[in-house]
C-alpha cells in the first residue's frame, strides 16, 4: 500500500491540533469519531455536502476498531452462519462485504499483506480478520484525509458537547447548534451551529445535551411486547446493561515481562480459571444463581486446559510463526471473566461514586457525567489488569514455554497512554434514541414461539419499507449480572453471571435497518448513529458489530446528505417514496461514490456482480417475487418466463406509467433481466405513497410509531403461509395397485393402519425384511395435528441414517414424504439408492415434501438414506411407497 508506512508514522505520532474560532457554522455536524461517525463523514463528503465538521472527544478515529481496541473484526460470518461459528473461513459470512465496510477492510487486509505477509495475520483458520489498532487508525485517517485536504471536512479533536441551541418549532424543537468544552474541562470554548447534527458518540452526548428522548436499561415486556423481554424488571436495576470490557493488546517481548500485582487482586475473581482446587471452588457460595459449568482443576501451577490455551488463538492479531517480524500479538477482550458488569458495583466503586453525588452508584453509565464514568473506567481497567496478572502467574506461567506463557508478553506500546491500555473500553450498549420507530425483537424473527432459539435461513418477519441496509446477528448479551460471595458481599470478589432473558442464544432472521430508527420522535435537526439509534435493548445487542456500525453511519450520512440537498426533513423521507429512493441511490447506485451497500439481505449477492445495484434496488422496491426462505437470489440462473412475468407485474405497481418499455428478455439470466428492467424503471416517475392519516399512514388503526410496515394495513406479517400443493399435503394418491408397498414410520403405540406396514425405528431384521442400520426407536414422534396418522407421525435424525428393505433387483418407483405437522423443519436430506431427492429443504408446520424417484436396485435391497452428518437440523421421514417400475419407453 503506497506510502502506508509513512502515513502510519505521521498519523500515529501527530495529534490533530486546530486553532478554531469560538463560533463556527457548518452544514453537517457529526459528534463522535467512532467508526459510525467516520463513515457518516465519508458518505456525506462523497455525496457533495460542502461543509462537514467532525468533533471527537479523543484523538483517534475508528471507535471499536482503534481506541476501543476490538482488533478482531466482529461481522456477519457467512452463508448459513451468524455470529461466531466453527467455520471462520474469510469468505464465509452471512452476507458478502459491501459499502464502506468492504472498502475499509480491503485496505486493512492489503496493509496486512504488505507488512505481515497475510491479509489475516492472526491465523485465519482460528479467527476473523485482524489488525493492529494503531495501523487501522492510520487507514481511517488516510481514507478521510482527501476530504480534509479539500476543505469539505473539518476535524476537531479533544472536545465534547456540554450545551445545545434549540429552536422551538410549532410541533417540536429543532437542534441548531452545540457548545463544546475541551476534555478535562466543563467550560465551552467552541460553538458550532449546524443545519443537521449526527450523534455518533460513545454515549449519545449530543442527544443528551439536546434533551431528545431516549431509553436506557432493560425494556419491560409491556413496552414493546417482545417475547424475550422480562415481564417484571425488578431484578433488572437501572444500571444493568450489556457490560463494558477494557480490552488489552499484548505483544510478545524479548524476555519475561511480568506486571506488578494490581490493587485488590483476588484470584477468586477468576474462579472459572482459578488455581483453586475443585473442593475450594465448590466451597465458594455466591449470592446469585451462578453456573460455573465445567470447573477445571490444575494438578500443578501453569498446566492449562485446551480452553485456556485457546486464549492464545481465538483472538490472535498477529501470529509470530507466520508474520514477517515473527512477533505474536493477541487481543484479550472478554474471555475468562474479563467483562465488567455495570450493576451491583463493588463497595470501593460505590463509595467513590457516592462522594460525587448521592445516588450516583445506581445511575446508568449512560447518565453519569464524565468524572463519574471515569471511576467506573478505572475499576474496569484494574479488573482487566488483574486478569493479565492472573494469566501471567497462575495459568500461562511456564518460563520454559514462551509460546504458551503470558509472562513473555507485555502490554502493547502502540497506544498513546501512560498505562499502555486503549484510551476507551469496548462499549456494547449506549443509550437508545427514542426514534420514529423502535425496532423490536419480533420484527426480526419469524416467531415460532418464544422458546425458538436458532436462526433460520429466511428473511425477517418484517422487512421494513424504509430499509437502508442488511443485517443479521444473534441478540448477544454478555453476562450482565454480578455475583458476590455470600460471606463477603460487595467488599469481596465477584464473578459475572447470565441473568434470565439476557442471553446469547436467540438469533435474528435476515433483516433490514429502517431509516425511521435514525430519526428522533420528538426533535428535528438531529440523527442518531453508532449505538444511539431507535431499537429496543434486546435488538441493540444484535446491531453492534464492526460492519453494522460502519454501515449504520454510512446510512446516516446518506440520509443527512439527501435531507440537506433536497431541503427535506429526515422524518419526511420514509413517507416520500422519491426521496427515500434518493437515499438508497446514495448508498447503492452512485457508481462513483465507492462500493455499493447491500440493502436487501440476499446471501449470495456480491458487490462486484454487474447486477448488484439493480437487484438491490428492485428488491427494496418490492419488485422482485420473493419467498421467505429463498435467501439466495441466484443472479446467474436463467430468468424463467413465469418469474419474468411476475417481476414485470410487480414493477407496474411501483411506477406511474401505463406501459413499461419493452426489451428482448429471452435467454437472459436473472441478473441480466434485473439490469434491463432497472434501466427501464429508474428514470420513470415512481408511484407515491398514499398517506391516509398524519399519524397512521395506512389507516389500519396502528399508529405509525408502533407500525413497522407503515403502508401495509393490518398486522405486519410480510410472509404468508403457503397453501399446500399436491406434493406438499403429505396425502397418499388414491391407488388400488396391489404392487405398491407402503411403509409408515411411527411409534409402537400408534394403532396399525390397514394400508401400511409399520416401521418403529428398529434395526434391520431379515425376518421382517426391512429396518435401520442402527436403532432409531426413540426417534419417533406423533404431533396429533392432522387427522391422518401416516403423515402425523415420523421418524427423525439429526445425523445420517440408513434404512433398507429387501426387494427383487430391478427398476423401482419410489416416493418419500418428509415433514412435521407441528413444527417447521429445515435442512432436510434424503437419497434413494444414492440419488438425491431432497437436498437441504425446509417444510413449514403442517406442510410436507413428497418426492419421486426411479431407481435401480442391484443388491436386493432398496436403500434410503436420510439426514446429513453434523447438520444440526432434523430430517423427518413420514412414509415411503415403492412399486416395480414399468419399462422405460
Core attributes:
FAD/NAD(P)-binding domain, 889 residues, seven-stranded mixed beta sheet, 29 strands, 4 domains
The CATH architecture of the largest domain can be named as 3-Layer(bba) Sandwich
Q: Please compute the radius of gyration using only Cα atoms.
A: 30 Å
Give the full name of the CATH homologous superfamily of the largest domain: FAD/NAD(P)-binding domain
The figure for the number of domains is 4
Q: What percentage of amino acids are in beta strands?
A: 15-25%
- What is the name of the CATH class of the largest domain? Alpha Beta
Helix share of residues? Answer: 10-25%
Average pLDDT over all residues: 88
Can you lay out the helices and strands and say which pair or pack?
Elements (H helix, E strand, L loop, with lengths): L3 H10 L9 E9 L3 H12 L5 E4 L43 H18 L16 H17 L3 E4 L2 E10 L4 E10 L7 E10 L5 H6 L3 E2 L5 H4 L23 E5 L25 H6 L22 H4 L6 E3 L10 E4 L14 H10 L13 H26 L13 E3 L20 E2 L33 E5 L9 E4 L9 E4 L13 E4 L11 E3 L8 H4 L5 H21 L10 H11 L24 H9 L20 H12 L17 H12 L59 E5 L11 E3 L10 E3 L7 E3 L6 H4 E5 L3 E6 L3 E10 L5 E8 L2 E9 L4 E10 L3 E6 L8 E10 L5
Parallel strand pairs: 1-2, 1-6, 2-3, 6-17, 18-19
Antiparallel strand pairs: 4-5, 5-6, 7-12, 8-10, 8-11, 9-10, 13-16, 14-15, 18-29, 20-23, 21-22, 22-29, 23-28, 24-27, 24-29, 25-26, 25-28
